[in-house]
């Protein structure tokens, strides 16, 4: 609907399984702002592809897209490079205050907010409720329980095609998330309390060793986990070939779809922790933000669009209709949310979430992540002992961060 | 054009006129960006121009020499090239010989054999990755069902197998292109040479080694250069098939350059990687030309 | 002397055809399976049930696929036209008009085409942005033309070398200018060479990925490989959609290859015969 | 050396008959030439003998043994190809040595034989060169050398000189002749050049569209052509032909007043004939020669051209054009009227239908 | 029609001199032939005249105007190429009409002119065909027709007959001759075939490695060759050459006892000479001819071969080989001893260094 002298906004975002939401929001926004039309520039849902697109455009100071969706881990980096427009002057104090603060911190550089949270997601432990029931096993809370439950079920079923645990351990960003869940579940963390790199702390080493042992000692994980991306793992679980699956919440929809072999036979719970670390923040968090291009020619309108997408109403609708965990805290309190049991349950897990160190590392995050992926992979492939791998990782991260 | 201009000059001017549009397009699309890359590789600058360009000489190249990952990528690239090119060449020659025979349904067969090459790499690597999958891929399905193996083969998760799998896809895709070029050469060998060979008492195999192969040197050189150029720049294949993994076992130079440029956003260092890669390719072409020409 | 029955030959041919074709056959079979069939273990060798749902759903849910294919076609055709016309002119000049630097130019053209394309992207994007060529057919056609002109110049130049020069000289005596000679004599006479070069360039362009991804950022302008590569999600990999879309996207290439495969071989043959 | 016998040999490609069945006995040491225009089946015949082409019908005997199904290399034949077919990537030595190497002959002997042959052909200085670095004549010699080293029983040549220029052709022809005299190997030689055929052959087989038109010595085919085709193919410039019709015992050249007096009893009932007369059998007489001889006619010179040693006259006798060949010194010029004499003994007669030569009852 | 003048025309490719500077005046309506072996610069010269090759040095005048920098199409010349160079994708009509179309001549006139020429060349039935559907001779005629329709001032021919077979070549040669007589257009004709040159030319330019060896009428170049090269190139079979050394007033053939009595005062001081004698100037005498004539020698026949009308004798006189050409009937056979007479008036003498003809003080 390009009416006379209309402002044309370009919004770059993938469909990410909530295409309905994007279309709905654009329609509503256009209705509310008759002077502005929005073109939806659908980009790849594969983060690497959209990143390449953004990087080429932004380095060339392209004025479009005006608004784009970015992975939470890019926010610090893009902001540092001056590619994003600070939103403080466009969004009210009140609005900013409503956003999930831990999430917002990933997009805050030098006290300026460069992006607004669109939705949050995180990993959960999906399990085959029917199988656990069959063998009388309680829903596991710890890794120790996951391992022993896996062994019992695998042995009991006697099916060589059935694995205990699957997840995304290919050398991708997801592996880093996965690993953070493990070490956090053992009371470790990326940076210690003093802000020093602590990836080779004894707790981290022990947790990582558990990953390696699951693969080679306990044998509850298939070799192929080392090439699995989220969907590979989901597929196996959905085909009834795994007892446990640890990936993001998006899989809930396909798993419970009508033609899914495991529909009605699974459930999920928070990510496991190691014995004695009940309060560990073991859920790896991710999510997407909306940001305004620093070179946009319609910053005002662009910010309005961001505001609309992250508004209470829009986020509530997305939560209820598309199971998207809202990026603002106030939505969780909405009365309608009690109806949305699933999103509530996801939300509980996010309470014990851990974010990746992208805000602190800023533009160096991609290198840090790359080093961690490489070294953890080295350990998982037994190219190095866990200790060597994590010591090397610590040294490299320190050198990247100039410490 | 002026009457007084000599015929020769008028012809030359026409020629320049004919060449100019092509040169302009190539300049815009290739030469200008290449020059920019070279300039970038000798300097330090912020990509978006917010910091001015600063000449740093060979700094990035020096850093490159001390970069283990670069050497790994170089090794991977060479290994991939060294494995896939001979196979492609061998199969290409075989296919060319086959397509040079006359038999019923030759047209159809030629089409089928040509087809892998006409399929976008970006898509066909996806197909292969899926077929390679350990847990629900076609190959493992067949292998397990037929009892060849009792544990799934982890094609893309094992360093050696991953490289092998990549080579297989490359060979599958490009042997036919190789065959095409060689077929062209094959058809230009005078038939009576083979007859002379028969009179001399050559067997089929001797005909092949004594006549066909030596006379295919030219087309083979062309095919080798074209394919090696591509193999030394291979990008989409590891990008889509293995992500360069496991660890960095299949990370090619192009993939490394891509990561440096688009993930780490270090355009200067990335440019240095690419320039070195270009020099390697250029040197390789020269080596081919000399190696094959000096033989006689 | 007697011809032996050539079962061996047919066996080898069948095997080569099989190996070349099976991934595509597998892809086509996949496009007729339902989701359960696609992920079934052990794999389903024949779709069961055999379903057209994927095709129906792609036309209803992603009608833009047709647009992508159309874009690919426009870009491919445009790029082919430019590379043939301009590349042909250049090849003609370089092989026939006795330019003094012809040899050096040929080598130079080949050398620049060796540069790894990944690194061209940022700089190209910037130039295209400044020139207003982003998201235009002209832009991507030019970009592809730039990538493939070196190839076409080399192919065509070697093809022209096989043509008797006297016909062109006769045309000069008859009073034609070089442009006219090129259009009315060289072009029709090197038809197989042009067809072969054109077809190869068309396929190159149809398959090109990195430049098409970056220079066409608008959805409606995307080419087929880029468009199809949008289907995989961050987490999900919809094989049913991808296999179906791929099958649809390769049909035009398949048809064109089928029509012109004789010329590919014929053209290359002439080109290489020196 | 061996004799070669073709018994009802024929060749068809599907429905196309390339060579019709014929018999031929080639004696030990004979030099036989297959002559005919392009496409008449010369190469096909030769290639059947070589074993490069399968034989459709008939038997081929070399040295008394049937070799229809023998491999080319085991037939004891060697072939020289029209465009030499040298291995371009091998040295002259290796080209010549190839067959011997394949026979697994000891190295020393190979070297000896190749060197001997190279010596004989004057190729010794070039043994290390590649064919591309040789002149046409040298290449031709290498091709011949390659055939000789094998000491074959039969040499086959497929237009071996046609790619050489005129002067070289003459030279190489003489070398071939000498070679044959020296080695005495049975040779079968394909050409479409009548001069080559005439000078080289013991016997000539003239082929016409896949059929044998005549087999005979050079003199026979020149002087007693069996068909009009042979008469027209052999001799340069070609024979004059004119249609004639019976006029009592004489023959009148159709469309003119020219009467050729009965020149011997012709074994034909036909009312029409084609007469043939070679240009060199027309004698130009001094203008003051007395008429009276019925074989003397008056002619106008339309065109006179000097060839060098000879000159060609385009004559018109009573409207009938004739070509005459005369000496190159002091010949009449265009426009002059001359008196010519036709040698009746040299007049040929052909049946216009069958094109076969019509024999004379009284042989000249 | 126009005259063509070459003033010190020369051509080099970089360091290679393809044609050395020379002068030549070609008269209106003249038929000039450029003759020489392969690579001697014939085509280069012709192509400079055509405008297809730039002129390195000198001036080219056509009809009195300097045309060095004129476009080929504006020089008023038409060219017939060796391999016809017909447009394979156009009909015969269009091939012939092309130049006229490009001149924007009205359609009706084009049709008239093409039809006239086609009629004249007997091409009318083939006007709609593509060249591929024509025989060699017909294609050649189309190529000529294409040149004629333009009514050029000068015709250029680059070996137009060399792709035809022998019989057709003779026929087309005559057609060309007739054509020239009819149209009278200045023609420059390149060939390496001496028979073509001799029969067609008003004057012949003989080129030898880029240099003009002789310019003269056919009779001049045959009878009075200016250099040894010309003498050897013209005449077939080639002239006999023998080295001779001074022996008083006589000349002795080197390496033999054969003495050639002084045969006219030679304008040379040189101690050595190369003597030349054409094969047809050796006369075979009856064996009982009385000796005494110093020009009569005894000879042994080494080889005798029948060419058809003639025969060639390889003779040996006192160890010196001679080739003689004699009549094809009743010639001596190999092994016989014959008596021959050499015509002293026909003996040529060349300086062995410069290879130039040594003039005789008293012309024969
Ligand atoms: N493979 C084939 N299939 C069909 N016909 C053929 C084949 N090879 C030859 N012929 C035909 O057989 C006939 C004789 O051919 P051949 O090559 O023997 O002729 P030739 O006398 O050697 O002619 P040239 O002088 O041109 O070499 C020709 O009419 C030719 O068209
Ligand atoms: N483009 C060129 N560059 C260098 N040398 C050339 C070129 N064209 C011709 N020549 C040389 O010029 C000389 C004369 O060539 P030209 O073509 O005129 O010979 P020709 O007498 O026509 O021979 P042919 O009878 O073989 O056609 C040859 O030695 C040739 O090698
Ligand atoms: Mg033949
Ligand atoms: Mg020439």
UniProtKB/TrEMBL annotation, chain B:
<keyword id="KW-0812">Transmembrane</keyword>
<keyword id="KW-0472">Membrane</keyword>
<feature type="transmembrane region" description="Helical">
    <location>
        <begin position="160"/>
        <end position="186"/>
    </location>
</feature>
<feature type="transmembrane region" description="Helical">
    <location>
        <begin position="207"/>
        <end position="226"/>
    </location>
</feature>
<feature type="transmembrane region" description="Helical">
    <location>
        <begin position="12"/>
        <end position="35"/>
    </location>
</feature>
<feature type="transmembrane region" description="Helical">
    <location>
        <begin position="73"/>
        <end position="99"/>
    </location>
</feature>
<feature type="transmembrane region" description="Helical">
    <location>
        <begin position="111"/>
        <end position="131"/>
    </location>
</feature>
<comment type="similarity">
    <text>Belongs to the binding-protein-dependent transport system permease family.</text>
</comment>
<feature type="transmembrane region" description="Helical">
    <location>
        <begin position="269"/>
        <end position="291"/>
    </location>
</feature>
<keyword id="KW-1003">Cell membrane</keyword>
<dbReference type="InterPro" id="IPR035906">
    <property type="entry name" value="MetI-like_sf"/>
</dbReference>
<protein>
    <submittedName>
        <fullName>Sugar ABC transporter permease</fullName>
    </submittedName>
</protein>
<dbReference type="InterPro" id="IPR000515">
    <property type="entry name" value="MetI-like"/>
</dbReference>
<keyword id="KW-0813">Transport</keyword>
<keyword id="KW-1133">Transmembrane helix</keyword>
UniProtKB/TrEMBL annotation, chain C:
<dbReference type="InterPro" id="IPR000515">
    <property type="entry name" value="MetI-like"/>
</dbReference>
<keyword id="KW-0812">Transmembrane</keyword>
<feature type="transmembrane region" description="Helical">
    <location>
        <begin position="7"/>
        <end position="29"/>
    </location>
</feature>
<protein>
    <submittedName>
        <fullName>Carbohydrate ABC transporter permease</fullName>
    </submittedName>
</protein>
<feature type="transmembrane region" description="Helical">
    <location>
        <begin position="68"/>
        <end position="94"/>
    </location>
</feature>
<dbReference type="InterPro" id="IPR050901">
    <property type="entry name" value="BP-dep_ABC_trans_perm"/>
</dbReference>
<keyword id="KW-1003">Cell membrane</keyword>
<feature type="transmembrane region" description="Helical">
    <location>
        <begin position="137"/>
        <end position="160"/>
    </location>
</feature>
<dbReference type="Pfam" id="PF00528">
    <property type="entry name" value="BPD_transp_1"/>
</dbReference>
<feature type="domain" description="ABC transmembrane type-1">
    <location>
        <begin position="69"/>
        <end position="260"/>
    </location>
</feature>
<feature type="transmembrane region" description="Helical">
    <location>
        <begin position="181"/>
        <end position="206"/>
    </location>
</feature>
<comment type="similarity">
    <text>Belongs to the binding-protein-dependent transport system permease family.</text>
</comment>
<keyword id="KW-0472">Membrane</keyword>
<feature type="transmembrane region" description="Helical">
    <location>
        <begin position="241"/>
        <end position="260"/>
    </location>
</feature>
<dbReference type="InterPro" id="IPR035906">
    <property type="entry name" value="MetI-like_sf"/>
</dbReference>
TrEMBL record, chains D, E:
<dbReference type="InterPro" id="IPR047641">
    <property type="entry name" value="ABC_transpr_MalK/UgpC-like"/>
</dbReference>
<keyword id="KW-0067">ATP-binding</keyword>
<dbReference type="InterPro" id="IPR008995">
    <property type="entry name" value="Mo/tungstate-bd_C_term_dom"/>
</dbReference>
<dbReference type="Pfam" id="PF00005">
    <property type="entry name" value="ABC_tran"/>
</dbReference>
<dbReference type="GO" id="GO:0005524">
    <property type="term" value="F:ATP binding"/>
</dbReference>
<dbReference type="InterPro" id="IPR003593">
    <property type="entry name" value="AAA+_ATPase"/>
</dbReference>
<dbReference type="InterPro" id="IPR015855">
    <property type="entry name" value="ABC_transpr_MalK-like"/>
</dbReference>
<keyword id="KW-0547">Nucleotide-binding</keyword>
<dbReference type="InterPro" id="IPR012340">
    <property type="entry name" value="NA-bd_OB-fold"/>
</dbReference>
<dbReference type="InterPro" id="IPR017871">
    <property type="entry name" value="ABC_transporter-like_CS"/>
</dbReference>
<dbReference type="InterPro" id="IPR027417">
    <property type="entry name" value="P-loop_NTPase"/>
</dbReference>
<protein>
    <submittedName>
        <fullName>Sn-glycerol-3-phosphate ABC transporter ATP-binding protein UgpC</fullName>
    </submittedName>
</protein>
<comment type="similarity">
    <text>Belongs to the ABC transporter superfamily.</text>
</comment>
<dbReference type="InterPro" id="IPR003439">
    <property type="entry name" value="ABC_transporter-like_ATP-bd"/>
</dbReference>
<dbReference type="InterPro" id="IPR013611">
    <property type="entry name" value="Transp-assoc_OB_typ2"/>
</dbReference>
């Amino acid at each position: 609907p390009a009416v006379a002298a209309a402002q044309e906004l370009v919004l770059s975002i993938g469909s990410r399984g909530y295409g309905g939401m994007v279309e709905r929001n654009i329609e509503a926004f256009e209705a509310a702002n008759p002077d502005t039309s929005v073109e939806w520039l659908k980009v790849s849902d594969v983060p690497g592809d959209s990143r390449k697109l953004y990087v080429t455009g932004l380095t060339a100071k392209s004025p479009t897209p005006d608004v784009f969706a970015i992975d939470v881990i890019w926010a610090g980096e893009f902001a540092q490079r001056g590619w994003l427009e600070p939103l403080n002057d466009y969004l009210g104090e009140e609005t900013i205050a409503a956003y999930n603060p831990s999430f917002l911190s990933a997009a805050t550089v030098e006290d300026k907010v460069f992006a607004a949270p669109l939705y949050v997601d995180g990993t959960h432990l999906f399990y085959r409720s029917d199988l656990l029931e069959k063998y009388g096993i309680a829903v596991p809370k710890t890794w120790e329980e996951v391992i022993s439950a896996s062994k019992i079920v695998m042995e009991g079923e006697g099916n060589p095609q059935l694995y205990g645990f699957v997840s995304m351990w290919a050398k991708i960003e997801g592996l880093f998330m996965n690993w953070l869940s493990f070490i956090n579940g053992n009371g470790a963390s990326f940076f210690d309390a003093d802000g020093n790199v602590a990836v080779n702390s004894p707790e981290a080493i022990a947790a990582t060793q558990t990953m390696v042992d699951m693969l080679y000692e306990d044998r509850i994980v298939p070799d192929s986990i080392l090439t699995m991306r989220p969907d590979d793992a989901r597929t196996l679980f959905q085909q009834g070939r795994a007892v446990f699956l640890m990936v993001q919440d998006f899989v809930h929809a396909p798993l419970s779809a009508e033609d899914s072999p495991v529909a009605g036979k699974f459930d999920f719970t928070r990510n496991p922790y190691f014995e004695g670390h009940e309060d560990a923040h073991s859920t790896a968090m991710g999510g997407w933000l909306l940001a305004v291009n620093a070179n946009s020619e319609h910053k005002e309108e662009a910010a309005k669009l961001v505001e609309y997408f992250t508004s209470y109403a829009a986020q509530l609708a997305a939560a209820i209709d598309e199971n998207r965990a809202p990026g603002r805290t106030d939505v969780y309190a909405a009365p309608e949310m009690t109806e949305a049991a699933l999103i509530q349950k996801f939300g509980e897990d996010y309470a014990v979430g851990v974010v990746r160190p992208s805000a602190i590392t800023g533009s160096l995050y991609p290198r840090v992540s790359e080093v961690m992926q490489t070294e953890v992979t080295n350990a998982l492939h037994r190219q190095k002992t866990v200790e060597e791998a994590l010591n090397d990782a610590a040294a490299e991260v320190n050198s990247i961060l100039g410490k | 054009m002026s009457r007084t201009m000599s015929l020769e000059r008028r012809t030359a001017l026409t020629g320049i006129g004919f060449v100019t549009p092509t040169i302009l397009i190539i300049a815009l699309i290739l030469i200008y960006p290449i020059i920019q890359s070279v300039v970038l590789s000798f300097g330090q600058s912020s990509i978006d121009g917010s910091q001015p360009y600063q000449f740093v000489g060979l700094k990035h190249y020096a850093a490159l020499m001390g970069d283990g990952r670069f050497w790994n990528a170089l090794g991977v690239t060479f290994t991939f090239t060294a494995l896939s090119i001979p196979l492609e060449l061998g199969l290409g020659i075989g296919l060319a010989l086959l397509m040079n025979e006359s038999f019923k349904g030759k047209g159809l067969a030629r089409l089928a054999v040509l087809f892998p090459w006409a399929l976008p790499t970006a898509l066909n690597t996806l197909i292969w990755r899926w077929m390679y999958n350990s847990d629900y891929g076609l190959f493992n399905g067949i292998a397990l069902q037929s009892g060849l193996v009792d544990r799934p083969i982890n094609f893309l998760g094992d360093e050696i197998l991953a490289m092998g799998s990549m080579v297989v896809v490359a060979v599958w895709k490009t042997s036919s292109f190789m065959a095409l070029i060689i077929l062209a050469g094959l058809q230009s060998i005078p038939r009576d040479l083979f007859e002379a060979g028969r009179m001399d008492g050559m067997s089929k195999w001797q005909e092949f080694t004594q006549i066909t192969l030596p006379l295919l040197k030219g087309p083979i050189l062309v095919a080798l250069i074209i394919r090696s150029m591509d193999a030394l720049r291979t990008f989409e294949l590891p990008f889509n098939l293995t992500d360069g993994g496991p660890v960095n076992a299949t990370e090619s130079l192009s993939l490394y350059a891509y990561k440096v440029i688009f993930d780490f956003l270090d355009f200067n260092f990335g440019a240095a990687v690419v320039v070195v890669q270009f020099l390697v390719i250029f040197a390789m072409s020269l080596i081919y030309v000399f190696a094959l020409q000096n033989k006689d | 002397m007697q011809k032996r029955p050539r079962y061996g030959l047919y066996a080898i041919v069948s095997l080569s055809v099989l190996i070349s074709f099976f991934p595509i056959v597998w892809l086509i079979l996949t496009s007729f399976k339902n989701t359960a069939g696609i992920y079934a273990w052990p794999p389903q060798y024949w779709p069961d049930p055999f379903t057209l749902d994927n095709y129906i759903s792609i036309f209803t849910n992603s009608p833009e696929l047709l647009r992508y294919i159309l874009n690919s076609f426009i870009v491919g055709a445009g790029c082919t036209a430019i590379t043939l016309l301009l590349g042909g002119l250049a090849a003609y000049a370089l092989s026939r008009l006795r330019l003094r630097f012809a040899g050096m130019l040929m080598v130079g053209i080949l050398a620049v085409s060796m540069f790894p394309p990944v690194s061209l992207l940022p700089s190209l994007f910037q130039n295209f942005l400044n020139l207003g060529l982003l998201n235009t057919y002209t832009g991507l056609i030019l970009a592809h033309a730039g990538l493939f002109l070196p190839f076409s110049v080399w192919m065509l130049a070697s093809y022209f070398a096989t043509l008797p020069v006297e016909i062109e000289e006769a045309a000069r005596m008859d009073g034609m200018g070089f442009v006219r000679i090129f259009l009315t004599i060289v072009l029709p006479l090197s038809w197989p060479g042009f067809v072969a070069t054109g077809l190869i360039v068309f396929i190159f362009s149809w398959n090109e990925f990195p430049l098409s991804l970056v220079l066409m950022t608008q959805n409606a302008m995307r080419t087929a490989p880029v468009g199809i590569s949008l289907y995989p999600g961050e987490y999900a990999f919809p094989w049913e959609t991808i296999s179906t879309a791929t099958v649809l996207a390769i049909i035009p290439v398949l048809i064109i290859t089928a029509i012109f495969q004789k010329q590919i071989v014929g053209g290359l043959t002439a080109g290489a015969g020196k | 050396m061996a004799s070669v016998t073709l018994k009802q040999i024929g060749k068809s490609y599907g429905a196309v008959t390339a060579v019709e069945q014929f018999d031929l006995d080639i004696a030990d040491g004979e030099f036989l030439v297959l002559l005919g225009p392009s496409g008449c089946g010369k190469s096909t015949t030769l290639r059947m003998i070589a074993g490069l082409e399968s034989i459709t019908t008939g038997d081929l005997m070399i040295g008394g043994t049937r070799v229809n199904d023998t491999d080319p290399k085991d037939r004891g034949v060697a072939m020289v190809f029209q465009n030499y077919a040298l291995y371009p990537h091998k040295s002259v030595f290796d080209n010549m040595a190839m067959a011997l190497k394949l026979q697994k002959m000891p190295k020393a002997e190979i070297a000896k034989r190749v060197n001997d042959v190279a010596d004989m052909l004057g190729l010794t200085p070039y043994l290390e060169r590649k064919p591309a670095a040789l002149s046409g004549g040298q290449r031709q010699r290498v091709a011949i050398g390659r055939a000789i080293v094998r000491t074959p029983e039969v040499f086959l040549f497929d237009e071996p000189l046609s790619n050489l220029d005129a002067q070289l052709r003459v030279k190489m022809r003489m070398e071939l002749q000498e070679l044959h005299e020296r080695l005495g190997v049975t040779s079968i030689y394909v050409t479409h050049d009548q001069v080559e055929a005439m000078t080289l052959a013991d016997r000539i087989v003239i082929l016409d569209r896949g059929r044998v038109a005549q087999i005979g010595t050079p003199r026979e085919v020149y002087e007693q052509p069996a068909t009009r085709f042979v008469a027209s193919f052999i001799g340069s410039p070609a024979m004059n032909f004119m249609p004639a019709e019976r006029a009592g015992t004489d023959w009148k050249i159709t469309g003119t007043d020219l009467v050729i007096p009965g020149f011997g009893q012709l074994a034909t009932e036909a009312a029409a004939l084609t007469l043939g007369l070679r240009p060199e059998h027309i004698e130009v007489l001094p203008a003051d020669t007395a008429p009276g001889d019925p074989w003397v006619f008056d002619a106008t010179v339309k065109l006179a051209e000097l060839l060098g040693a000879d000159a060609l006259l385009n004559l018109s006798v009573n409207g009938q054009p004739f070509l005459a060949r005369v000496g190159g010194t002091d010949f009449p010029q265009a426009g002059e009227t001359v008196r010519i004499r036709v040698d009746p003994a040299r007049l040929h007669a052909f049946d216009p239908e069958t094109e076969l030569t019509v024999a004379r009852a009284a042989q000249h």
